[in-house]
Amino acid sequence: MKSDKSRKYDQIMAAARKLFFRYGIRKVTVEEICAEANVSKMTFYKFFPNKTKLAETMLTDIFDESERLFRELMDADMPFSEKMQILVQRKLDTGKDAGMQFIAELYQTSHSEISVFLRTNVRERMKNTIKEFAKAQEKGWMRKDIK
User: Fold this and answer.
1) Angstrom distances, CA of residue 73 to CA of 6, 16, 79, 85
2) CA distance 5 to 51
3) Do 16 and 54 touch, CB atoms closer than 8 A?
4) Which of 18, 34, 77, 107 has the smallest CB count inside 10 Å?
């Protein structure tokens, strides 16, 4: 059974994800997150120094899960073409979960801490994807002229 502390952390994370995906990070306040999570602001600040750190933590969790699923898919014993179909479908499904306001905010705000965080993380994670595609090209599963 989860501890009360762990449960409250999960409540904050779930509330943030729901509200950020619906309204974007900038439009959501700490007070709204606390109300949605049914926790006090003092509890919020025990876990996160500010809303930006919460957003970064949430994005890191999403990226880590995506990376784990990608790794599992690439290691699966199935044709590469099926792997690519599944990968594309997952990307489409992820886009459905996050609202357009959230996605647009992440990519249009070039000077925010979140945008810097996002660019850094995406760049690092893309390196792994490129390595996997290069392996597929070496094995003849993917055309070598695709960059």
Assistant:
1) 30, 28, 11, 11
2) 19
3) yes
4) 77
Do residues 27 and 16 touch, judged by C-beta distance below 8 A?
Answer: no
C-alpha to C-alpha distances, 80 to 46, 70, 72, 138, nearest whole angstrom: 45, 13, 13, 13
Task: Residue 115: count other Cβ atoms within 10 Å of its Cβ.
Answer: 15
Tokens of 120: 């850094």
Under a CB-based contact definition with an 8 Å cutoff, are residues 24 and 105 in contact? yes
pTM more than 0.85: no
Q: What whole-number distance in Å separates Cα of residue 28 and Cα of residue 6?
A: 23
Count Cβ atoms within 10 A of the Cβ of residue 52 and give its class: 0-12 exposed, 13-18 middle, 19 or more buried. Answer: middle
Q: How far apart are CA 1 and CA 4, in angstroms?
A: 9
- Please name the amino acid found at residue 103: I
Q: Cβ neighbours of residue 28 under 8 Å, at least 6 residues apart?
A: 16, 19, 20, 51
